[in-house]
Amino acid sequence: xxxxxxxxxxxxxxxxxxxxxxxxxxxxxxxxxxxxxxxxxxxxxxxxxxxxxxxxxxxxxxxxxxxxxxxxxxxxxxxxxxxxxxxxxxxxxxxxxxxxxxxxxxxxxxxxxxxxxxxxxxxxxxxxxxxxxxxxxxxxxxxxxxxxxxxxxxxxxxxxxxxxxxxxxxxxxxxxxxxxxxxxxxxxxxxxxxxxxxxxxxxxxxxxxxxxxxxxxxxxxxxxxxxxxxxxxxxxxxxxxxxxxxxxxx
Length: 250
Known about the structure:
- By secondary structure, this protein is mostly helical.
- The protein has helices at about 1-5, 15-60, 65-75, 80-90, 95-110, 115-140, 160-180, 185-205, 215-240, 240-250.
- It has one domain (about 35-150, about 160-250).
- The protein is globular.
- It contains ten helices and no strands.
- The protein is about 80% helix and about 0% strand.
- About 30% of the residues are buried.
């Protein structure tokens, strides 16, 4: 009889049930809230930045800046810089980055890191797909400069494919360095080298007359958007499924 009296009537809920539900909600927020918030916030910010940049291009508000920056970069041209920027332009090409991604995927799998291998593949592959979609949508013509060192390009200009895929590839590698490298000094050097590589690839495209400054910036922003979604999603999954994450990394 006492047990029957303790049971809630029809339409009523047990306070203990409410308490357990709230505890479960707090637990979920503690597990994934920070990572979800950072990832979504980053994606929203980069999407807004890309929107502002694209609007400036449509209204030709960035045209003067693009031309001034291009002329300044081209004024620095000399045989040494020609070789340096040709090297970075080559390693930042879609073909080179895809090849490096395949090689890195094979090495990571051989070293028993399939989780990291797929993360890097998704970072590069997703960035490449996003770039092609955006190029088709905006259809911005290539720059026409007398100093153009790549005159036979027939694809669209905005956003830069070199900037996008190199940012995604190096960003994925930077994330893996953060996860695997133990020494703060080595990790800082690793992150610095990734930043330098991305910067030089982007600058090489302006130097060689293949892109405007805003094309490169647009590539960086779109790459940031994709990485923010991908890495936050991976972090959320790892925290919600720690056992699966450990197995995939083992």
